[in-house]
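Example record for the data management plan.
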Amino acid sequence: MIARRLARPLLAASFINGGIDTLRNPGPRVKLAEPVVEKVAEPAPLPGDTDQLVKVNAVVQVVGGALLALGKFRRLAAVALAVSLVPTTLAGHPFWEKEDPAEQSQQRTQFAKNMGLLGGLILAALDTEGAPSLGWRARRAAHKAREALPIG
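Corresponding structural encoding:
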């Protein structure tokens, strides 16, 4: 369908652009990510190097965005982008920590925009393009296997 061929690159563009920008200039994002990494690195088995984590996240966004835009591994790419978007949003747009009303409003808008992107990624991850899902195929195969067994 033509809508999918147009929508995927449009959805992916933000991630590709943001990922490239982060790879070129990671400093500001590393500073924003420090508090989030400190909270998450304790319980999760993540390296403590925030610079490395920010760059890995950026690579996920560039590669995932490119795959989504090209329609290759599109569902997996959408899931990877959704997972990368959560820490990006929490680190980059903590409107609840801002005291200046104008800054809080700007950060809330960016947070809401990212939630909209997340919604689009969820739809892209679930889109089977009309083909049966893996779950449906597995249930059908199990049902056929049960029918093929001799009743005893």
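Summary line stored alongside the record: The CA atoms of residues 91 and 115 lie 14 Å apart.
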